[in-house]
Amino acid sequence: MAKPPATPPTATPTMLRRVNAGKVLGVLTRARVMTGTGLIEATGLTRATVHAVCNDLISMGWVVELDPGRTSVGRPSRRFEYNNRAGYVLGVDIGASKTTVLVSDLRGETVAKAGRSAAGVKTPGERTEIVHETVTEALASAGVSNEQVLVAGVGVAAPVDRDGNILVDDEFWRRFDGDLAKRLTELHGWPVLLENDANLATLGEHWRGGARNVDDLVVLLAGERFGSGLMDSGRLLHGSRGGAGEMVFLKLIEGVGDTHGIARIAREKGTAAVADPSVETSLRKLADGGEVTAEQVFSAAAEGDEVALGILQDIAARTARVIATVGILFNPELVVLGGAVAEAAAALLPDLEKHLAGYTSTPPRVAVSSLGDAIVSVGAVRHALNYVEQHALDLELGCRPS
């Protein structure tokens, strides 16, 4: 026998007040300044309700009331503004070789930035200690206390499931501390939202990059290893264990064979060319102890070095196969190359587009990110702000108005 439908909860005055507060706060987070009349029009609430809710939000610290100004006729309208300094969020990018921390206000404006190298790190615990030190430095630079931080978005170069657990199925992924979120919360007191770095890069590009109006999007982090974040109709794809967009399948793709990114391939090919005495290249003058950096390869190519140009042509052909495969699988409108290599990768675009036309009849548009090596930390800030906006009425502000 079928069960009768559950009776919906009775709407209480407290519940209605909370719903109305959420409506008003939602409008104010997107607007700069709103009058009471503007809020009435935007929310459909009565004047009395809007003013009562704004008074509540002011007392909580989420909203400030501005000087109404002068008017020649009638009573001036009350003016309200979202308090973007009611608290702060952190955007943390924990890369394989560097940690970057952004301190941001609640409109997403950067207040301070700090970065530290992770070169020579041998254990996940050592990496977490570097994160802790970088966070401490960034907060000190911003003049922000742990109590003022509402939440931190944190990106790692590994899949992260919906419960915030890092997958450790791959040797590279095991470089990150499985208790990272718990440890940071113990050290600083604020909650941590752990997420895959490419997913955060996609949020960042969609929010502040060149993909603001693109809802079918792939962002490829292409530095040391390829990683991708996928957005379909404006929704970030996550997967059952956080593995949507993982690029291990590249080991099966002819002409690719591994997950090595643009920077790694450029460095390895450049170093190999310098090690061969029969090869004439200006890279030999730039090499430090026989080692060549990806930046040096791109720079030499820009100056017309034939060997460096050949390396970039090989990288373009290989990267085109990666993009074509992702394009065929997910049919995005735009693929963005992101990360520290993005600016240099602009030199690859003409060759990339030529190869793509031969691999698929529906090639996506390809661009490089303008966010540079901040793309993950910017996305981490957006991730943290989403949390604040969804849970604002449940958060205790570190500095409430007296």
TrEMBL record:
Keyword Transferase: yes
Pfam families assigned to the protein according to its UniProt record, in alphabetical order: ROK (PF00480)
GO MF annotation list: kinase activity
UniProt keyword terms in alphabetical order: Kinase, Transferase
SUPFAM superfamilies xref list: Actin-like ATPase domain (SSF53067), Winged helix' DNA-binding domain (SSF46785)
InterPro entries in the cross-refs: ATPase_NBD, ROK, WH-like_DNA-bd_sf, WH_DNA-bd_sf
Protein's UniProt keywords contain Transferase: yes
Similarity section: Belongs to the ROK (NagC/XylR) family.
Protein name listed in UniProt: NBD/HSP70 family sugar kinase
